[in-house]
Every structure is written in structure tokens, then in C-alpha cells.
UniProtKB/TrEMBL annotation:
It holds the Pfam family BPD_transp_1. Its main location: membrane. Belongs to the binding-protein-dependent transport system permease family. Gene3D superfamilies: MetI-like. Residues 94-311 form the ABC transmembrane type-1 domain. It is a multi-pass membrane protein. It comes from the Bacteria. GO terms for cellular component: plasma membrane. The keyword tRNA-binding does not apply. This is Sugar ABC transporter permease.
């Protein structure tokens, strides 16, 4: 009986092929997320990138009312930017925008956190009812809710004036015009925007609170920690990434508030409620200086990018610390 002996295959011929396949697989795995994100990136580049490019181009030209009919807009370079930066209204409008944005973000986060904590203490049925009310307020279109708010604060037959006048604790509010002074007008707009923004923040923070293990609070209670101590050493550290995220989104939304201010006050009285967004519209359409209006919009975008970049950097650092 003859036995055929075969020489063992050299390991040097198989190992490189396996290594090559493994390396190719790793490269394919690393490239897969970018491939999946490519369609969304293309859509965003078309939807967001083209208007931004057009905005920048308009801001670099002397684009006025005549250019709408002739199509001829002479090159102006940075003249529009010099014009708005040297305008006496620029600093007050910028300061007003930043202060209003900070007040909106602070109010939204504070009230949103209180509502989120309240949701955690409610029973199941009551929590469901409150959640549905929050979603209804959040889903209401901003134009519709602003018109309702305008009716609530109407001087002659508004519900707010009627209620305050009936109580008679704060004085006479019959025919009180809330939008006649910049301070009270900003208060009305602030209340409206915060009312619209709180549901998203509250529900997001409530979802984060529900993920914190109760054992941490039980251990803290055994160590003698009170409610505020537990909130400071347990709740805030766990919610820090979520707080930073909702802060970023609130800054983006509140810095560009337009519908509420325009419908209620149109930047008045005088220019007391004029923010960068309102100023850009006034420059573009009231003064027919579309180039300067576009320049104001570009400056707003750059400021917003700087603010969001700062918070995104903090968000990434917070993620690395976890």
C-alpha cells in the first residue's frame, strides 16, 4: 500500500493573505460611517451651502433696488461690512441681541430643569397628561402661538390685562399697552419664546434623569446628603453632556429669534427690540440695501458659529471625561 505524502504548505503564503483581508476589512469598517453619512452631507451642502454662498456673494456687492431689475450689482468688497460695523446702531443692536439670547437660554434651562424634576415626582397618569401638554405647546407653529400671545396682551380686551385688573394687586392695567415700551415688550417676547422652548428642554432632561440609577441617591442619603447636595454631586454631573447639548441648541434657536419679535413689535418701539435678525431685514427691505442686510446676516452667522464651536468643544471634553 503506497502512501502519498504531501509537503506541508508554507505558512508564509497564507498569513499575508489573511493579514491583507483583515486590513482591508478594518479599512472598510472605518470607511462605512463616512459612506453612510455621504448622502446626508450632499443634501446639507446643497440645501445649506448654496444659500450661504449666495449670501456671502450678495454681501460683497452693492446690491440695491436697481440691481433687482437690471441684474447688475457692482463689486463692493468689504464696503458693506465697513458700513455696518461703523454704523452707530451696530453696537447697541449686537449687545441687545447677546443679552436677550443669554436671558432666553438661562430662563429656558432653569424652567426646563424645574419642569423635568417635577415630572419625575408626578404619578404616571399626571406625568402623561403634563407631557402631552408640553408636546402640544412645543408642536404649535411659532406664528400661530405668537398671534395668540398678541391677543393675550392686547391693551383693550386682552386676557392678561383683564386678569391683572381684576386682581387689583399690581395697580390699574386697563388699556395697558405692553408693547409700547421696550422693556415690557422684551418681557412679552421672552415669555413667549421660553414658553415655546421649555417643553423640548424639559422632556430631554427628564429622559436623562430617568437614566440615573436610584442607588446613587440611596447611597448619598445613607451618607447624610440632602436633596441639594445630591442634586449637585449626582444629578448635575450625570446630566452635564445633555445640559451642554440643549444649551448649544438653545443658543442657536434664541440667537436667531425673528418671528416672535417681528410679529409682536417689528423691532419697536423705536428700535428698542431690534436684534441682528430684525436689523438685517430693516436694512435690506426698508433701506433697499440688500448688500448690507446680507452682511449683517453673515456677521450673525459668524458670531453664532463662534458660540456653538465653544459649546461643542466643551461637549466633547465632557464626553472624554465620562
Amino acid at each position: 500500500m503506497t502512501t502519498i505524502l504531501r509537503a506541508p504548505e508554507s505558512s508564509g503564503t497564507t498569513r499575508p493573505a489573511a493579514t491583507t483581508r483583515s486590513a482591508a476589512g478594518r479599512r472598510g469598517t472605518r470607511a462605512l460611517p463616512y459612506v453612510l453619512l455621504l448622502p446626508a452631507a450632499v443634501v446639507l451642502a446643497l440645501v445649506q451651502g448654496y444659500p450661504l454662498v449666495r449670501l456671502v456673494l450678495i454681501s460683497l456687492r452693492s446690491y440695491g433696488l436697481r440691481a433687482l431689475f437690471t441684474g447688475e450689482a457692482p463689486w463692493a468688497g468689504v464696503a458693506n461690512y465697513r458700513g455696518i460695523l461703523s454704523d452707530s446702531e451696530f453696537v447697541p443692536v449686537l449687545a441687545r441681541t447677546v443679552v436677550f439670547c443669554v436671558a432666553l437660554v438661562a430662563g429656558t434651562l432653569l424652567i426646563g430643569m424645574l419642569v423635568a424634576l417635577m415630572l419625575g415626582e408626578l404619578g404616571r397618569r399626571m406625568r402623561t397628561a403634563v407631557t402631552l401638554c408640553l408636546i402640544a405647546a412645543w408642536a404649535m407653529p411659532s406664528v400661530a402661538s405668537t398671534l395668540i400671545w398678541q391677543w393675550l396682551f392686547q391693551p383693550l380686551y386682552g386676557v392678561v390685562n383683564w386678569g391683572l385688573d381684576s386682581v387689583r394687586v399690581f395697580g390699574d392695567f386697563s388699556q395697558h399697552d405692553w408693547l409700547a415700551r421696550s422693556g415690557s415688550a422684551f418681557f412679552v417676547v421672552w415669555t413667549l419664546v421660553v414658553w415655546q422652548s421649555v417643553p423640548f428642554v424639559a422632556l430631554t432632561l427628564h429622559a436623562g434623569l430617568s437614566q440615573i440609577p436610584r442607588t446613587y441617591y440611596e447611597a448619598a442619603a445613607l451618607e447624610g446628603a440632602g436633596y441639594w447636595q445630591s442634586f449637585r454631586i449626582i444629578t448635575i454631573p450625570f446630566l452635564r453632556p445633555i445640559l451642554l447639548l440643549v444649551t448649544i441648541l438653545s443658543v442657536i434657536w434664541d440667537f436667531t429669534v425673528f418671528n416672535q419679535i417681528w410679529i409682536l413689535t417689528q423691532g419697536g418701539p423705536g428700535s428698542g427690540t431690534t436684534t441682528l435678525g430684525i436689523w438685517a431685514i430693516v436694512k435690506a427691505f426698508s433701506s433697499q440695501s440688500y448688500g448690507q442686510g446680507a452682511a449683517i446676516a453673515v456677521v450673525s452667522v459668524l458670531l453664532l458659529l463662534g458660540l456653538t464651536a465653544y459649546y461643542i468643544r466643551r461637549l466633547l471634553r465632557s464626553g472624554d471625561e465620562l
